[in-house]
Amino acid sequence: MSGKLSKGLVQVYTGNGKGKTTAALGLGLRAVGHGLKVYMVQFMKNWNYGEVEGVRRLTPDFMIVQFGRKECITRSDVNELDVKLAKEALKHAEEVIKSGKYDVVILDEVNIAVGWGLLSVNEVLRLIKDKPSNVELVLTGRYAPKELLDAADLVTLFEEVKHPYKEKGITARMGIEY
Dihedral, CA atoms, 24, 26, 30, 31, nearest 10 degrees? Predict the structure, then answer.
């Protein structure tokens, strides 16, 4: 049991701007630098993103697992398998949080899973309510519902001001956006 945090809070990173996952990874990197153990559960992701390979270099201090299909990119792509995978991810996250092995647990894109109806807001609120008091919990993704914002200790809204996809047609670049 690491238990190095005396008080764990709940953070939400949401909004339409770029950088929510990256910010959570940065927090995880900082935590590892101070001897804390970090675990990231990626909801609705199953692709070889750069962060997956980067975090693997920090194993066992920083773990990352993915639950999702790479074909589920928009709300219209959602099917029963996506619901099943999101529920498996939430169950796995609950086990990790209660294990006592990790100081920081990041639920990447869980807000989208709620927003798209793969999980209910009450399922995530229960996880927040039941988390040990010394575990920092970070929830990322667009569409965080008001109930999750209200349950959080810290909320950061990422606002898009300008984006090269829209203004210049520049597509995602390896090592920068993925």
Answer: 20
Which range of residues forms the domain containing residue 115? 10-168
Residue 128 resides in a domain: yes
pLDDT tens-digit profile of 4-34? 899 999 999 999 999 999 999 999 999 999 9
Q: How many residues does the chain have?
A: 178
Per the domain annotation, does 176 fall within a domain?
no
Q: How many other C-beta atoms lie within 10 A of the C-beta of residue 48? A: 10
CATH, residue 156? 3.40.50.300
The total number of structural domains in the chain stands at 1
Tell me if the pTM is above 0.70. yes
At residue 60, the pLDDT reads: 96
